[in-house]
């Protein structure tokens, strides 16, 4: 049965991503914590922060020009809009605006004033957008307008200073030329020589050129720009607001929860997915038991009606019946990795009932000799059966005198060899009577199912693997560790057996925890009791049908 494993390994990339996403969703508590933290943070920012208001003014920047209405005149000559944006946010503009605001009874430091200013430049334009964020609408409006006016005033002064400096340079060049011209005029009056007249004419031309340049500079339009859009007092506060902050907080919290889930997944020792479990065991998943609401009324799901749990057990039995590895020996060892063995006991009993429905002669052997409980859990469904002839000489020791028949209403019956506490468990499991019981599977139409304690808690299952080669592991994938799965495969392979498959069952949840608190706990660890009866055992206190939170059903109508 290796083709399911190959199919899992050949999954495409979307299937792997879905698998990883499902693994993250296993930690719903961390996701919920992340979302709650994000919502609380967004709500705190929205409620604790003071309302702010933003006013915006738009300034058109232009350069000085002699005739703005002339053909081909352009207002963007020599303008570097990036440099102008930096100038608008400079300390010089801030000081000018602070001085203007001080006159209007709004004293503010230049540094604090510039802290609320944001100057942007829309693409492919010569405009600057002055946005100021203040505590009140009027403060935002007045300070945005003061900063825009201060920038225009600073640029106007800078343009006029440049014009005045250039004119002063032309006048400095003009003064010696005029003095020389006056000197030549005196010489021309005394003697009119040709060379003197020529020099005088050249000086007049130079003086005229300089005078023309000075006149052009004085005629320049030094307007630095226009305030196209005056700042207006905003009516509503700016910022994200409560709904948007809550939404952003939820998104950030979800991202935080996913991060925490990923970290938890990385350091989680349990099996991350069914695909990883199948690869580690080298065996396919035979089935996944559904979660039933409420405590079950009986250990046997088969015989109680067409429930989903019973149908899943039947599907597992049919799958085993057509497995070549199982049909060759018709022996099955059912065990759990470690911890509670209740799920394995339920799987063994229901598989025995399913094979009985198929018309097989089923023998269920309870090899848990430390905490036997199948006879008590089945209750009135089990009644005494005649032991085989070879058991007459064994003085009633286990497993000779422990046979009983178990009715499956409407489906038949199977034989149960109930467990019994013994002084030497390894000797009892490796005794000749156990070998003769397992050998009954050699008869045509006979199936032997052995329920063993958890394989990692005791060596009992290992002692039986050489007689029952096929092993089925019953586990909760969220509780078994990766190292445990690999160790189980190594132990079974080294003992000469093989894992036929794994049966997955859901966790007991809160209801199961309550049931375990109300009922005696099965112990399957090294500290399990091996001597004497348990005084709290329901079988001793007077209720033999109530154990582990399970009540055996009344099968008197179907008893043979």
Shape: rod-shaped
How are the strands of the largest sheet arranged? 5-13-12-6-11-7-10-9-8
Structural class: alpha/beta
**Number of beta strands:** 15
Write structural notes for this entry.
The protein is of the alpha/beta class and 560 residues long. It has two domains: 53-229, 2-Layer Sandwich (Bacterial polysaccharide co-polymerase-like); 285-388 and 397-524 and 536-550, P-loop containing nucleotide triphosphate hydrolases (Rossmann fold). It has 20 helices and 15 strands. It has helices at residues 3-9, 13-25, 28-48, 81-88, 91-103, 110-115, 137-190, 194-218, 241-266, 274-281, 308-321, 324-329, 342-357, 374-378, 425-429, 432-439, 460-465, 482-494, 509-518, 538-541; strands spanning 53-61, 117-120, 127-134, 225-229, 285-288, 331-335, 361-366, 382-384, 403-408, 412-417, 446-451, 470-475, 498-504, 546-547, 550-551. A nine-stranded mixed sheet has the order 5-13-12-6-11-7-10-9-8, sandwiched between helices. It has a four-stranded antiparallel sheet with strand order 2-3-1-4. A two-stranded antiparallel sheet has the order 14-15. α3 runs antiparallel to α9 (241-266), α10 (274-281) packs parallel to α18 and α11 packs across α13. It comes from Streptomyces finlayi.
